[in-house]
Design goal:
The protein has about 425 residues and is of the alpha+beta class. Helix content is about 50%, strand content about 20%. Strands 6, 7, 8, 9 and 10 form a five-stranded antiparallel sheet that branches. The protein has a four-stranded antiparallel sheet with strand order 1-2-4-3.
């Protein structure tokens, strides 16, 4: 196999890859052996016809397409490695010669990692984020815990806001029931805004067993085009009403929801944890602001193919998340009215931010000669072992050389983030507002 590299404009390159005819022939023979049991040739039992007879009947190229598909991935992978390029996109494949008995010649256009010209990246001005936990913050956190420990009691009174109800309903448009507008024994918390705007409010005052009419208008952006923007009437019967009974905020409550015996101790612990969270959040805000400022001061040319690939990767990650929830991408696209192409376009701003962030941080790490020591690597592996509840030796066995290298690159990027944040100068927001005026 041979590869020729041609540099193109805008951080693109073209690889011309030549696979020897003998390798293609070997692949064609493998395809023949794989498929021969399914091939009919007059005068031969199924699967017994020699290859030259099959090719005589169906043409010499009958096994060529599959053979090319078999040899291309490994040929491209070898060529990409041999080229020495830092390829950052999926290849755009083209063919120059595809004939039985001849070398296979194909091309792969790829994006190459762009060079970054850094501007100022140390001592950058970032807004200061105050870390202040108030009594209101503490009580809001405690009240959320109080809500989680509430008890639901059935009541006979009319519906009130906040009640958890069980309802039967059926929707009508111009007096005709519409598809998907009917439900039985449906749980609905009044005030949750789970239904169409205006629906839940009209159930306040409804009594158990008595049918009420609810008049609503579907939102203009409703997922069903047949219903979007149109008025409808729902006939609703409330079958059950439960009200929420909150536990008293006292020492008993504190001992049940925490390791502390008194409410005062519990409140102090909540305050401490909120301070830790706010401190971590402030650190993250400072890091992001410093990185954003460094990106703004840098210059680079991002090839379209690199952006397209990163956006596609984000869509693939989203699809994987959907599958974990039991929903296929096809189902999601159908429900949302999206297409994969439109999702790729929607992902591009996020993809561009990710690309620029990584490139700038890698450039900072290089400019500052940030090195990852064996101690750094060992410490990270230990952290991984703890997170996955595995032995350190087990983790090491699972990690090959390329994975270790990728982990070390991530550590270098994190050190670059730390450097930007540590050297950044925090400014009060009031000062910024005065300067803006």
């Amino acid at each position: 196999m041979s590869v020729k590299v041609e540099t193109l404009e805008k951080n693109m390159a073209k690889l011309t890859i030549e696979v020897p005819a003998a390798e293609v022939e070997s692949a064609m023979q493998a395809v023949y052996l794989r498929r021969k049991s399914r091939i009919d040739v007059p005068g031969f039992r199924k699967g017994k016809a020699p290859r030259h007879m099959v090719e005589k009947l169906y043409g010499r190229g009958i096994f060529l397409e599959d053979a090319v598909n078999d040899v291309m991935p490994s040929a491209y992978e070898k060529a990409a490695k041999e080229s020495g390029l830092e390829i950052v996109s999926r290849p755009e494949i083209g063919f120059e010669q595809v004939e039985p008995g001849k070398d296979l010649i194909f091309t792969a256009e790829v994006a190459v990692k762009p060079e970054v010209t850094l501007g100022e990246y140390k001592g950058l001005s970032v807004p200061k984020t105050e870390v202040n936990v108030t009594e209101e913050d503490v009580m809001a956190d405690i009240k959320r815990e109080q809500e989680k420990n509430a008890v639901l009691n059935s009541v006979e009174r009319p519906v009130q806001n906040g009640d958890q109800t069980t309802i039967d309903f059926e929707g009508f448009m111009d007096g005709v029931a519409f598809e998907g507008g009917k439900g039985e024994d449906y749980p609905l918390t009044i005030g949750s805004n789970a239904f169409i705007p205006g629906f839940e409010e009209q159930l306040v005052g409804a009594e158990i067993g008595k049918e009420v009419e609810v008049n609503v208008t579907f939102p203009e952006n409703y997922h069903s085009e047949d219903l979007a923007g149109k008025p409808a009437v729902f006939k609703v019967t409330v079958k059950d009403i439960k009200e929420k009974e909150l536990p008293e905020l006292d020492d008993e409550f504190a001992s049940e929801v925490s390791e502390f015996e008194t409410l005062a101790e519990y409140k102090e612990d909540v305050k401490k944890k909120l301070e830790e969270r706010k401190t971590a959040n402030a650190k993250s805000i400072k890091e992001n602001a410093a990185v954003d400022a460094a990106i703004a001061n840098a210059s680079m040319e991002i090839p379209d193919a690199m952006l397209e690939t990163q956006a596609q990767n984000l869509v693939d990650e989203f699809a994987a998340g959907m599958r974990r929830q039991g929903l296929s991408m096809e189902q999601y696209l159908q429900y949302s009215g999206n297409t994969e192409d439109s999702m790729i376009e929607q992902m591009k701003p996020r993809a561009l931010k990710q690309i620029k962030t990584r490139l700038v941080l890698e450039a900072v790490a290089k400019a500052e000669n940030i090195q990852i020591s064996e101690e750094d690597t060992e410490a990270e592996l230990k952290k991984m072992a703890e997170n996955y509840k595995m032995e350190l030796d087990e983790i090491k066995k699972l990690m090959d050389e390329s994975q270790i290298k990728a982990m070390q690159e991530d550590l270098a990027v994190q050190k670059a983030i730390d450097l930007l944040a540590e050297t950044a100068v925090e400014t009060e927001k009031k000062e910024e507002e005065t300067a803006a005026e």
